[in-house]
Amino acid sequence: MRITTMGTMVTHLIALVVLGIFTCACGHATFPWTMEHFIKVVEQVETSNPGQGALGLVRVLRSFGGLEDAFVQHFLGPLKDESPILAPEASDFLQAVIGHRVTGKGEEEGVVLTADGTTVALTPLLLGIEAGLLAAGGSDQALSGLYPLTLAKALGLSFLQPHSSPLHTEILGPDGCWDSMTSPRIFALSAPAGGAGLDSAPRLISPWRRGNFRELANTSLLQGWVVESLALYRKLIGDPGLAEGAESETAIKEGVKEFVRRYMECPTIIPRCQWGAKPYRGTPTQLTLPLSFLYVHHTYEPGQPCLSFQQCAANMRSMQRFHQEDRGWDDIGYSFVAGSDGYIYEGRGWHWQGAHTLGHNSRGYGVSFIGDYTATLPSQRSLELVRDRLAACAVGGGG
Ligand SMILES: *[C@@H]1O[C@H](CO)[C@@H](O)[C@H](O)[C@H]1NC(C)=O
User: Which spans of this chain does the record mark as coiled coil (predicted)?
Assistant: First the structure.
């Protein structure tokens, strides 16, 4: 029984910690805020403090991040007086990079960039791993903290923020981009396996995190976790200024609904700033929504499917260059483009008319698969991404 529970739990955990709910960007630190750099520093912590074991190590990291309020302690217990040894620059980096918060300037701190172009928040990652390790050692209290610590409390608090907060226009966290996209080495967890593409890749990789999460949660479960976490939060920490009663119930209901739509129903869409788009030329024509059609194309050129964020982003830039400079269009023609890396790339997006299907551009979105598919099909995963996820996302969002 325990073993079965653990297997599921670990799967849940991995799916959760890579969920990366808040995509944003920021970071004017001297160190690159990349997952790769974070892992290097974790290795330093491990080498300078030998014999810790996995649990000891995450607790040391938690102490650097100052993650020990009553809510965290309720599930994970207090930190002992750990005095880890670490080079000051590594310790500064950890302090800066672990604590999750959104600044008054609308910048999100406590997130790092992964090699697949998406963003991961470290606080839920660390708390989730610690809860998982404790649960593996038999702690039911820690097991019950998995969702509250990694997701539900943060989600609930963001729903109940006073409306005056600068963040409130985007209660689920702003979309955003990093100030600079370095090209770190491929991170194994994120990369599709070998040349065979995503269909033969393992399940627990970053591009599947939404699909994995859909297998764990649904609207009613999420709502329950959020309500319970907020009740515990009010009891342990207090709730100055949070919405209450009926107002809180409505906010939670609407918040969860929007969360499910955006982060479970929709695919991850890599925004223009992330792939390095040039600005639109001229004045875009606004689409009149909802549209009745979704036109599906293949790019033909480039003819090869792109299997990594770096490759897909480069393809996007070269198509935009071709459409703007050789064709003389205002922008890349497609509304969206499907990579074979598990992601959709934003072209003209939901609101601006594209140039993809002559005579029909005002009636539908144009979506193109990168690659030449005259003789073969795109991977099953890419097909699902467009057919099941992007289409549902368009309908659910009024497009
Ligand atoms: C949500 O998931 C739970 C647990 O798997 C299940 O019992 C419940 O019926 C689901 N609810 C909906 C609305 O799908």
Answer: none
Residue 380 within a domain: yes
For residues 17 and 266, what is the distance between their CA atoms, to the nearest angstrom? 19
State the pTM of this model: 0.82
- State yes or no: pLDDT of 145 exceeds 50: yes
Q: Residue with the nearest Cα to atom 13 of ligand 1?
A: 220
Count of domains for the chain:
2
Looking at residue 319, its pLDDT comes to 98
Q: Phi and psi of 38, rounded to 5°?
A: -55, -45
220 lines ligand 1 (CB under 6 A): yes
How far is ligand 1, taken at its centre, from the CA of residue 215, in Å? Answer: 10
Q: Is 304 in the pocket of ligand 1 (CB under 6 A)?
A: no
- Among 246, 265, 284, the domain boundary falls at 265
Is position 1 within any domain?
no
Its domain, for residue 20, covers: 6-265
Indicate the residue among 212, 238, 265 that finishes a domain.
265
The mean pLDDT value for 79-86 works out to 79
Output the CA 256–ligand 1 centroid distance in Å.
Answer: 15
The finding on whether 4 has its CB within 6 A of some atom of ligand 1 is: no
Q: In this predicted structure, what is the pLDDT of residue 376?
A: 94
